[in-house]
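Appendix B, record 7
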Amino acid sequence: MAGLKMKALYNQYFCSPSARFYILAFFLAFVFLTGGSSRDDVQSLIILRPAAVIFAAYALTVADFSEWKGRLFPLYILLALAALMVIQLIPLPPSLWTQLPERELFKDIAVLAGIDQPWRPLSIAPSRTLNSLFSLSVPLAALFLYLNLPNEMRFRAIILIMIFILFSALLAIGQIAGPSKNALYLYRITNFNSPVGFFANRNHQASLLAALILLLGWYGGIINAQKLRGNVRAFGAILAIIVILPLIFITGSRAGLILSGAALPAAIWFFFKGLSTMRLMLERRLNRNSSKKDF
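C-alpha cells (predicted):
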C-alpha cells in the first residue's frame, strides 16, 4: 500500500505534464544563471554540466517516446556534433598523424628532442575538444525535457524562453547604464562596456537577441492568427523588436548584426502571415453569419 502511495506521489510530482514543465523551467533558469560562458575554466560549469546529465537522465526516465516522433531532427544534429567530436579524440598512429596538414612543427619538435612520435588524436587540443563535447550535455538535457512536454505546454515553454531572453536584455541595459565593470556583469572575463546580459561574450548575447526577434515575429503571427480582434500582445511583440534592434547594434557584434539582418525579414513574414490568416478567419466568420441570416 505504501509503495502504491509512493508511486502515485512520484507520478504526481515528477511525471505529470505540469511537473515536467516546471522542471524544464527550473533547468532553463539554472542554465541562464550559470551557463553564460563557454570557457573551460569557468567554475559554474562544474555544477551545470553534471546537473544537465541528471536532468537528461530524469527526462529519459519519464519519457513517452511516442510523443517524440517527428521532432527528432534537432536531436540528430546534436548526436552528429557529438560523433564529430568523438572522432577527433580517437588516437591515430604516428605515420598517419604526421601526414595531416599543419603537423610539420610537431614532427620537427619530436625529431629535435630525440623522442618517438606518440599516438595522437586528430584534435591538436584534445582538452578543448572534450570541453566542447561535455558542453553538449546542456542542450541535450533541454531538448529531452522539451520533447517530454505535451503540445500545449511546448508553446508555453517557448514563451518562457522568450521571457528569459528579455530578462537578459534588461540586464544588458543595466550593464551599459552603470559604470564600467559594475556588479551586473556576471563573469570575471567578459566584454566589459558591452551589453552582454547573462553571457560573458557579446557575440553570444547578440545572437540570442537575434533569435528573440525571430521568436517575437512568430509569436505575433500566432497571436494574430488566433485572435480576431486587436491584440495588445501582438503590439507588444513589435515594440520589443524595436527595442531589441538598437541593443544588438550597441553590442558591436558583427555576428549579431548578420543574424539580426536575417531574423528581421523572417519575423516580419511570420507576423504578416498571421495577419493574413486572421483576415481569412474573419472572412469565413462573416460568410457564416451572412449565410445564417439568409436562412
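Remarks on this record: The chain is about 75% helix and 0% strand. The first strand starts at residue 91 and ends at 92.
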